[in-house]
Design brief:
The chain is of the alpha+beta class. It has 3 domains: 10-203, Heat Shock Protein 90, CATH 3.30.565.10; 213-328, Ribosomal Protein S5, domain 2 (2-Layer Sandwich), CATH 3.30.230.10; 409-613, MutL, C-terminal domain, regulatory subdomain (Ribosomal Protein S8, Chain: A, domain 1), CATH 3.30.1370. It is built from 24 helices and 22 strands. Strands 5-4-3-6-2-1-7-8 form an 8-stranded mixed β-sheet. Strands 9-10-13-11-12 form a 5-stranded mixed β-sheet, sandwiched between helices. Strand 9 and strand 10 (231-238) form a beta hairpin. Helix 18 crosses helix 22 (561-573) and helix 18 crosses helix 23. The relative contact order is 0.08.
Length: 626
């Protein structure tokens, strides 16, 4: 038989390598920016057209290259960064594997102009699909200009997989932000379709953060610094009250290389303890300086993941550094050593003998009659106990006089989407008929319990409300119309560039849900209205929460955009545990739940209802059933 193994042609091998290195326009931006930084540039200009599909150009004033180096830079595994195995574990630069330019040139039309400071003329090279078309001298300024046109022109299948322009531009902005944050001493400029988006001079890190994310970050930055024998940490964290409902403003840099590490992210979040609102994410830009021999950066094609030889120690140091920063700015809680601890800890247990301590509760569970009797309220003339009873009565009176907490009526269910359930649920619904009477009640302001023909029905109020809202919002998106309630005073919301691009991409669908907003500046929107059935007062959290939930669903689920939006808004606008409901509100919720197409399940698949029939309840009280 003839031999079947053969070497791949260079052009085909480069295209295969490009599948790992060049996934989208943002991948090209990342590689070119890193090359310019490695070249010692003090100014870098990024020019984007058609979200990088038509043009990606990076112009720098770095060292430049000779004509020989310029030609070799397009060869696979040609690099100036390493020459031995030892060099691989002492890397402080970005590019080192020599695959980026060869991969880019394999799937695009590339033009490079480069010149060293001491050379009289520079070098021009044009390549299309790994084939060199032109190499000649050219008159060009010192540094390098790298243009990538018509990405994936020779791989149409790859080009068809690219997302819409707003999505691709959002990824490009992410890479631009990371490079600009890592090197605030370098001036960065960004042009999108001939419009200047950023023009940042060399500046301090704090100024760079404000230049990228807006003036509202000026008042929320907290300095974070720590130095140990193992590593150094410096950077900024955000105040807890400024935490956002959306991810994206969290940056870790190890030796100025951006990384993604959920374990270290947990260290930062854990340091905030209970200072963060629910479902919020703190802002941070933290730099870790560590000896390269303790890390391995060669574990991922995009080099955004690295390995540490002692990750637990780094976790502990980061957590301690963040807690120290919060305490220094009087944000983290601290012990008050002037307080009399006897006042806060000793009164109830020592002065009230009938107070059910943990030990007494244990004895009660074992059936000890003496302890049961001890829990009865005696009719003694002890003035201390009499005063205590009076205090309890006054406490309950104060609760009755307090303003009632927000109830379901203020949140409003709105009309149900469907008046008839699906056929498969009809028999179940008939069995669940109930009377609107006092037998319906709330359990711990989380579940609704009501009597039904066969026994007892328990409803998870949040899951049920999510199902109702999900079907309602999905109906709005399909009909492209949703009622809105207008604001008396418009609400201005500043967003990250990536979130702003995402909103612009989904503008029509978001407005179909009932949101009314307009663009106000590069990354700012003005919200004039929200869906009609949502209570006002937390509009900013609702809008940011919608975007964050949408991104979470996109990462975890394979669903289309409309279903994702309907699920996301239903999740963020639904009743939360702790919401007190009136009898009418509880019955209304159950009515609307069983008017849905699928009343038995929440959008995420969890049960909305549980039935305890009489036979099952009786078994709990039958001997030898436990």
């Amino acid at each position: 038989m003839p031999d079947i193994i053969r070497l791949l042609p260079d052009a085909l091998a480069n295209q295969i390598a490009a599948g790992e290195v060049v996934q989208r326009p943002a991948s090209v931006v990342k590689e070119l920016l890193e090359n310019s930084i490695d070249a010692g540039s003090s100014k870098i200009q990024l020019i984007i057209k058609d979200a990088g599909k038509a043009l990606i150009q990076v112009v720098d004033n770095g060292k430049g290259m000779s004509d020989t180096d310029a030609r070799l830079s397009f060869e696979r595994h040609a690099t100036s960064k390493i020459s031995s195995t030892e060099d691989l574990f002492a890397i402080r630069t970005f590019g080192f594997r020599g695959e980026a330019l060869a991969s880019i040139a394999a799937v695009a039309q590339v033009e490079m102009k480069t010149k060293r400071a001491d050379d009289e003329v520079g070098t021009l090279i044009r390549i299309e699909g790994s084939e060199i078309k032109v190499q000649e001298p050219v008159n060009t300024p010192g540094g390098t200009s790298f243009s990538v046109k018509n990405l994936f022109f020779n791989v149409p299948a790859r080009r068809n997989f690219l997302k819409s322009n707003p999505v691709e531009m959002r990824h490009i902005l992410d890479e631009f932000h990371r490079a600009a944050l890592a090197y605030p001493s370098i001036g960065f400029t960004l042009y999108q379709n001939d419009l200047e988006i950023f023009n940042m001079p060399s500046e301090k890190l704090s100024r760079r953060i404000i230049s990228l994310f807006g003036q509202n970050y000026k008042e929320q930055l907290i300095t974070c610094q720590e130095e140990t024998d193992q590593l150094k940490i410096h950077g900024y964290i955000g105040k807890p009250e400024n935490a956002k409902r959306t991810r994206g403003d969290q940056y870790f840099f190890v030796n100025n290389r951006f990384i993604k590490n959920n374990y270290l992210h947990h260290a930062v979040v854990h340091a905030f303890d209970n200072l963060l609102p629910d479902d919020s994410f703190p802002f941070y830009v933290l730099f870790i300086e560590i000896d390269p021999k303790h890390i391995d950066v060669n574990v991922h094609p995009t080099k955004t993941e690295i390995k540490f030889d002692d990750e637990k120690t780094i976790y502990a140091i980061i957590r301690a550094a963040v807690k120290k920063a919060l305490a220094t700015h009087n944000i983290a809680p601290s012990l008050d050593f002037d307080q009399d601890i006897n006042f806060s800890l000793g009164q109830n247990t020592s002065r009230y003998p009938n107070f059910p301590t943990r030990d007494r509760e244990h004895e009660i569970e074992r059936g000890n009659d003496s302890f049961k009797q001890g829990l009865r309220f005696p009719s003694s003339s002890n003035p201390l106990e009499e005063n205590n009873n009076v205090n309890w009565e006054q406490l309950y009176k104060s609760f009755e006089n307090e303003e009632k907490p927000k109830t379901f009526e203020t949140i409003r269910l709105g009309s149900a989407v469907n008046t008839k359930p699906e056929e498969k649920d009809v028999s179940l619904n008939k069995d669940l008929l109930y009377n609107e009477n006092q037998s319906t009640f709330q359990l711990h302001q989380k579940y609704i319990v009501t009597q039904v023909k066969s026994g007892m029905l328990v409803v998870d109020q949040q899951a049920a409300h999510e199902r109702i809202l999900y079907e309602k919002y999905l109906n709005m998106l399909q009909n492209k119309f949703g009622a809105s309630q207008q604001f008396l005073f418009p609400l201005k919301i500043e967003l990250s560039h990536s979130d702003f691009a995402l909103i612009m991409e989904m503008e029509e669908e978001i407005k179909s849900l009932g949101f009314v907003f307009n663009v106000f500046g590069n990354t700012t929107i003005v919200v004039n209205g929200i869906p009609a059935d949502i209570t006002g007062g937390n509009e900013k959290d609702l809008f940011e929460g919608l975007i964050e939930q949408f991104k979470n669903n996109k990462d975890e689920l394979s669903i289309d955009r409309k279903e994702n939006l309907a699920r996301s808004l239903a999740k963020r606008a639904s009743l939360k545990p702790g919401t007190r409901l009136t009898l009418l509100e509880m019955n209304t919720l159950i009515d609307q739940l069983f008017a849905c197409k699928s009343p038995n399940y929440a959008p995420n698949g969890n049960h909305t209802i549980v039935i305890l029939d009489m036979n099952r309840i009786e078994k709990f009280f039958t001997k030898n059933q436990f």
